[in-house]
């Protein structure tokens, strides 16, 4: 078999898209390798959401182009959001590229690879078909093992048009995937060894609002996936506050396998900034959502994304963000300094906040969040948590590593000998190191059952 090296930047959607390309390429005779020097095909799945992500892609090219010089048969392709946005320009700038695919055209990867071999100029294949329904046919992958924690796309694109964000322009309109197709993929993943299912989308909780043959609301989809035998854990990301529903709260209460973690980005704690960002909700409304959620599910971990230094944000308005973080007591946060994304509306506005102020605001959010996170993590000492064991520790292979329901990395020391990767263990947390929980397994929380047989 030939070998493909796939490098992925950006969000979990990109990771899922790379997995999809891997499966499609497997069917046309390629195996994935992590040695780029050995590859017959290199695909870089790119991100353009922030300036930094874009810079990383360009610096990678510095390393890849010499490989192509040494081996003219090497096929070099670009996929993802930067490819979508800059397609023709990149083709002109880097003629050594063989093909360019957008996030909406990755299904054509095998055709692109074979056509590119016959072409002199890079093949640019980035046109959206906005009328097409969203379908990712489930592939027959025989017994190819699936990841223990597997991603499943349920909705693509975004219709929110937050003023700072490029995603609606690179990934197009929101479109949901038929529930039956999602269930079929989950069944296939479970049959091939997956135990934890991550439902993915830019806005998972906008699922089913439009365009499905049989309308299914997001929370109904959660109940549907939870019924599939063999799914031991269910997670989803990312949710949008404007599409938050009581149904989701109910699902957390009702479904034991729905893990107690929710990523609900707020971006800012100030109403004027939120309005300029076109987020469609106020800080008070956001606080209320989290209060209702925590009332119903006290143990739930809540994380968010924050942008500092949005155009015209004053110091006092920034402090509203710190206050919100403190009040909500986020378990975790991903914090970013605003960077204009050409094509997004805010990029037309003056980028008023000086870099030095952005930097110091960012540092303040990081320091505050570190404090909040450590407090949360330390509150687990003495408690028992269920951990899905993902891997053995390198240093001592009797020790394991996995995630708690709240998504904290957990180290299991002094393994009992009965435990294996893929088991769920009950771990008594004895101490913490940074953000990591550490403890011994008191007993396996679940025994591995016989494989499930589907007719
Ligand atoms: N709903 C999406 C959001 C995608 S972008 C999701 O799947 O997570 C991820 C995060 O990047 C956003 O929530 C925002 O905090 C940050 N971001 C997006 N555009 C940005 C920009 N122009 N500058 C700085 N941060 C940005
Ligand atoms: Fe971007 Fe806002 Fe959608 S952050 S992905 S436009 S919800």
Task: Describe, in plain words, how this protein is organized in 3D.
This protein has 455 residues and is α/β, with parallel strands linked by helices. The protein has three domains: 2-125, Methylthiotransferase, N-terminal domain (Rossmann fold, 3-Layer(aba) Sandwich), CATH 3.40.50.12160; 149-378, pyruvate-formate lyase- activating enzyme (Alpha-Beta Horseshoe); 384-441, OB fold (Dihydrolipoamide Acetyltransferase, E2P) (Beta Barrel), CATH 2.40.50. Helices cover 33% and strands 22% of the residues. The protein has twelve helices and 19 strands. The structure holds S-adenosyl-L-homocysteine and FE3-S4 cluster.
Task: Supply the key terms.
455 residues, alpha/beta, pyruvate-formate lyase- activating enzyme, OB fold (Dihydrolipoamide Acetyltransferase, E2P), six-stranded parallel beta sheet, five-stranded mixed β-barrel, 12 helices, globular, disordered C terminus, binds S-adenosyl-L-homocysteine
């Amino acid at each position: 078999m030939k070998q493909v090296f796939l490098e992925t930047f950006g969000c979990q959607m990109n990771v899922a898209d790379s997995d999809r390309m891997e499966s499609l390429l497997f069917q046309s005779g390629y195996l994935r390798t992590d040695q780029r020097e050995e590859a017959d095909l290199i695909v870089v799945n790119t991100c353009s959401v922030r300036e930094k992500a874009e810079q990383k892609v360009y610096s990678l090219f510095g390393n890849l182009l010499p490989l192509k010089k040494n081996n003219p048969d090497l096929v070099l392709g670009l996929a993802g959001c930067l490819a979508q946005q800059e397609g023709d320009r990149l083709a002109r700038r880097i003629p050594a590229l063989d093909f360019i695919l957008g996030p909406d055209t990755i299904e054509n990867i095998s055709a692109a690879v074979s056509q590119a071999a016959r072409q002199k100029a890079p093949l640019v294949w980035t046109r959206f078909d906005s009328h097409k329904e969203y379908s990712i046919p489930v592939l027959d992958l025989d017994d190819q093992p699936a990841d223990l924690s597997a991603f499943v796309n349920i909705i693509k694109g975004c219709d929110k048009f937050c003023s700072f964000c490029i995603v609606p322009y690179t990934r197009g309109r929101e479109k949901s995937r038929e529930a039956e197709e999602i269930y079929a993929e989950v069944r296939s993943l479970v049959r091939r060894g997956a135990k934890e299912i991550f439902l993915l989308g830019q806005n998972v909780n906008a699922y089913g609002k439009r365009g499905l043959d049989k309308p299914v609301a997001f929370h109904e989809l959660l109940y549907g996936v939870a019924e599939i035998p063999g799914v031991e854990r269910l997670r989803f990301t990312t949710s949008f506050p404007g599409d938050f529903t009581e149904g989701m709260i109910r699902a957390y209460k009702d479904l034991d396998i729905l893990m107690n973690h929710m990523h609900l980005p707020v971006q800012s704690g100030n109403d004027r900034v939120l309005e300029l960002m076109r987020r469609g909700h106020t800080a008070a409304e956001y606080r209320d959502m989290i209060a209702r959620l925590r009332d119903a599910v006290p143990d739930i971990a809540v994380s968010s994304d924050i942008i500092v230094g949005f155009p015209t944000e004053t110091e006092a308005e920034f402090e509203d963000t710190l206050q919100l973080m403190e009040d909500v007591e986020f378990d975790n946060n991903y914090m970013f300094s605003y960077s204009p994304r050409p094509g997004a509306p805010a990029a037309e506005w003056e980028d008023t906040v000086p870099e030095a102020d952005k930097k110091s605001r960012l540092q303040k959010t990081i320091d505050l969040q570190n404090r909040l996170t450590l407090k949360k993590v330390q509150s687990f000492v003495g408690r028992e948590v269920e951990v899905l064991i993902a891997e053995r520790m390198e240093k001592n292979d009797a020790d394991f590593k996995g995630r708690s329901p709240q998504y904290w990395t957990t180290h299991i020391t002094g393994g009992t000998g009965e435990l294996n990767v893929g088991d769920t263990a009950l771990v008594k947390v004895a101490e913490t190191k940074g953000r990591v929980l550490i403890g011994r397994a008191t007993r396996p929380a679940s025994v591995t059952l016989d494989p499930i047989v589907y007719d």
